[in-house]
Amino acid sequence: MRCTLQSGSDDLPLYTLPLCIVLLVGLWCSVSILIAIVGGWQELSKRFSSTSGSNAEIEVTEPFFYSVYMRFWGLYSSVIRITPTKNALYLSVFSLFRIGHPPLCIPWREVKLDKTSFLWQRYVVLTLGQQEHIPMRISERLARNLGILDGLPR
Predict the structure, then answer these.
(1) CB 138 within 8 A of CB 68
(2) Residue 128: in which H helix or E strand, if any?
(3) pLDDT in tens, 48-84
């Protein structure tokens, strides 16, 4: 008995690879938008969207892997840039995750500071927006390094 490969009905159509790529990109975009909605970023962007970004110098304040949680403990670790300036808090997300996450500029008068702890970790809770009340939890160490605990960013 001789085994041979035959072309025919077992071959995948030519459009399979492009279709898979389109589905993967669609899934990526959908998940990113869903995270923005659940985490509160979309709600904040209605009032605080910023196209200019921060003119402040970016300082490296923590190792790349620091913890940032938004509403419902939505994890933004390692994809968010937090830049405090004299007048405002600038937030932006790494470009691969930018869909649904426009850069934000939130004036300090719209930010309320509190401290909390969960298990063994101590957090600073930045409640963003006086109308929106979106919590953003960052480690106390990150808040200290950013100068947020001093009342004014450094």
Answers:
(1) yes
(2) strand 121-128
(3) 998 655 555 444 444 456 789 999 878 888 888 888 9
Which contacts of 79-87 are long-range, i.e. CB under 8 A and separated by 24 or more positions? 82/138, 82/142, 82/146, 83/54, 83/56, 83/58, 84/56, 84/146, 84/147, 84/148, 84/153, 84/154, 85/54, 85/55, 85/56, 85/153, 86/152, 86/153
Residue with tokens 């995270």: 35
Asked if residue 134 lies in contact with residue 71, where contact means CB atoms within 8 angstroms, the answer is yes
Least Cα distance to 47 among 111, 98, 95 occurs for 111
What is the chain's length? 154
Q: What is the pTM of this model?
A: 0.79
